[in-house]
TrEMBL record:
Keywords, ordered alphabetically: Hydrolase
Protein's name according to its UniProt entry: Glycoside hydrolase family 15
Taxonomic placement: Bacteria, Pseudomonadati, Pseudomonadota, Alphaproteobacteria, Acetobacterales
Gene3D superfamilies named among the record's database cross-references: 1.50.10.10
Residues of the GH15-like domain: 239-542
Organism of origin: Acetobacter cibinongensis
GO molecular function, one term: hydrolase activity, hydrolyzing O-glycosyl compounds
GO biological process, one term: carbohydrate metabolic process
Every Trehalase-like N-terminal domain range: 23-96
Domain of life: Bacteria
SUPFAM superfamilies: Six-hairpin glycosidases (SSF48208)
Length: 604
């Protein structure tokens, strides 16, 4: 993005695509509890899975500038933009400014008064603010990596588009001119001050298709806005970062897949952790770790219904499939990785579906599920006997398995005795003992869990501390550091002095401005992992260093004050460009819990 010529009073930006791609920070997200669309500053929707978040995309120019699908609405003359979300809402507004006038684009994945619609409805309203602007629009559908050939058929009075088992309608106000072919639709219209026009897509998969009126679709933009505002009313946080806090909460809400209660790690696949590198992954699945942390964040903001739905779904998957790292949003096991032929964002390959983590074992899942169960109970809630029995079996499993190597929190290809994994096992058994002590779990194995907890702590203290680094290392026998060890503080691991020294070492070796890399020697392969910096800030608050924690959070919020508040997985510390999949749940929830912790500690 580049600034408008000097002399302007505002801070408007001119959208620019680099080799056909927008910077990731130039995207806003739209969501309806089922899918997520990404809308760029230049008026182009470049990503939308239909009907579900993990469905093949209807629009995928995000991953292939030349042959990807998109839905673009933009002035025909040069323009600049301002954009933001409506207050306490996920309805996105973009103002276009040209020499001849100004207009407002309001975008929504619509809901109804009864909640999520049983079809996908993407609504884009254009209103004239001043003068007159000529707009052009284009809708070109994805060919799903050349495995589908979109086409139109006439059904009744409507031209219906088909992409394999997805069918839909492109609807617009009568005063808009359009032409269609099998590949898509294009057209133009004029908008003058006081005028209002609507363009929309209604779609479904292997199901009858509703044909709503333009007036109904237009009205549901406002209904959706009010529904988001009603949800935000549950949030009690009122600190100095409330706007960013609310935006992060709304971003997490994007990732809650309402048909099942699953929580996706992110809304996209294969956005690179470093431009031109090959660390590109599909995050449209539900990780036990990410889902657990998100449930904790929902509980922190008082979103009890969302937390309960997600927690129940997670427990049911563990009961059904056992302790796997991640699941599909429908609750199945994740497929192996399949590589497509798409060019990739800024030509960064591979572009993939599936995830190798599905076949890994990570001890962290034990700590994650027990940490979530404890958080759920600590809010005054109650575990049912079936869930309590499941958790007891998982505690026994953890007590038996903690001595083994695993893939660790970062899902690395070589198994080690990762320190963070051992601490997660300690966390699981510590919380299991506490849950038993307060009557939430059967006490039959309570003493055994306590003894194994203490053995794990002793093993960590004997094997994972480095006198040279004055820190816990990534795994015994190395001197590498691991930023995920900041989580040990919020897990209440008791070695406070050593953890405090470890936080200093993480800054020293992994810090880059306000950001941090995940672990030693990874800076050549990827950007800084945003959640790590929020974890360290939260750790500082838990350690009683409130001023330091507040300073860190302030620096992070200022550094991330770009776009409309939809944060990515990583950032390049050199130019602050965003990297990795978006919106990234782990980033937003780490920010929420860090703010909640700082608020609690400051009031103590």
């Amino acid at each position: 993005m580049t600034k408008v010529a000097s002399g302007q009073k505002d801070d408007r930006l001119v959208p620019q695509r680099t080799t056909g791609y927008l910077p990731l920070e130039d995207y806003g997200a739209l969501g309806d509890g089922r899918s997520v669309a990404l809308s760029g500053t230049d008026g182009s929707i470049d990503w939308w899975g239909v009907p579900n978040l993990d469905s093949p995309p209807l629009f995928d120019r995000l991953l292939d500038a030349n042959k990807g699908g998109y839905f673009s609405i933009q002035p025909t003359d040069p323009f600049s933009v301002e954009r933001h979300y409506l207050k306490d809402s996920n309805v996105l507004v973009t103002f276009f400014h040209t020499q001849s006038g100004s207009a407002k684009l309001t975008e929504s994945l619509n809901s109804s008064y009864a909640g999520r619609l049983p079809w996908s409805e993407l609504a884009r309203r254009v209103e004239g603010i001043s003068g007159e602007i000529s707009f052009r629009f284009s809708v070109f559908f994805s060919t799903r990596d050349d495995t589908a050939s979109p086409y139109f058929s006439k059904i009744g009075d409507f031209p219906v588009f088909h992409i394999k088992d997805v069918l839909g309608l492109f609807l617009h106000s009568e005063s808009i001119n359009s032409e269609s072919s099998d590949e898509g639709i294009s057209g133009h219209f004029m908008i003058s001050e006081g005028e209002r026009k609507l363009l929309a897509i209604v779609a479904g998969q292997s199901e009858p298709l509703v044909v709503p009126t333009i007036a109904d679709i237009d009205g549901r933009i406002d209904i959706s806005h009010h529904a988001w505002q009603e949800w935000v009313k549950i949030i009690s946080y009122d600190g100095i970062y409330r706007n960013a806090f609310v935006r992060s909460a709304l971003s997490l809400k994007f990732l809650l897949f309402s048909p099942s209660g699953a929580i996706a790690a992110a809304a996209t696949t294969s956005l690179p952790e470093k431009i031109g590198n090959n660390k590109n992954y599909d995050y449209r699945y539900a990780w036990v770790r990410d889902a657990g942390y998100t449930i904790n964040a929902f509980l922190a903001i008082n979103a009890q219904a969302d937390a309960k739905a997600a927690f129940t779904w997670l427990l049911e998957r563990l009961q059904q499939h056992g302790s796997h790292v991640c699941y599909t949003l429908a609750g199945d096991l994740v497929d192996e990785v399949y590589e497509t032929n798409l060019a990739g964002y800024r030509n960064s390959r591979p572009v993939v579906t599936g995830n190798l983590a599905a076949s890994q074992h990570q001890h962290g899942i034990y700590g994650d599920i027990f940490g979530t169960a404890w958080c759920f109970v600590s809010k005054g809630n109650i575990l049912d006997p079936c869930s309590a029995e499941l958790l007891s079996h998982l505690a026994d499993e953890c007590a038996d398995n903690w001595r083994q190597k695993d893939a660790g929190i970062w899902e690395l290809p070589k198994n080690h005795h990762y320190t963070s994994s051992k601490i997660s096992c300690w966390q699981a058994l510590a919380r299991a003992v506490e849950l038993a002590d307060c009557g939430q779990l059967p006490t039959t194995c309570r003493e055994r869990w306590g003894r194994e907890r203490d053995r794990i702590e002793q093993w960590i203290e004997e094997n994972c501390w480095s006198d040279q680094q004055q820190a816990y290392v990534m795994y015994p026998g190395c001197e590498k550091l691991d930023a995920s060890l900041a989580l040990a503080v919020q897990f209440r691991y008791p070695a406070t002095e050593r953890l405090s020294l470890t936080m200093e070492a993480l800054d020293r070796e992994l810090g880059a401005g306000p950001f941090h890399y995940r672990y030693s020697e990874v800076d050549k392969e990827e950007g800084c992992f945003l959640a790590c910096s929020f974890w360290i800030a939260e750790a500082k608050a838990h350690l009683g260093q409130n001023d330091d924690a507040a300073r860190r959070l302030d620096n992070l919020v200022k550094a991330l004050d770009r776009g409309v508040g939809i944060w990515s997985e990583m950032v390049d510390p050199k130019d602050l460009s965003w990297l990795g999949n978006i919106p990234q749940g782990l980033t937003h929830l780490a920010f929420i819990t860090a703010l909640e912790t700082l608020s609690e500690k400051s009031q103590a």
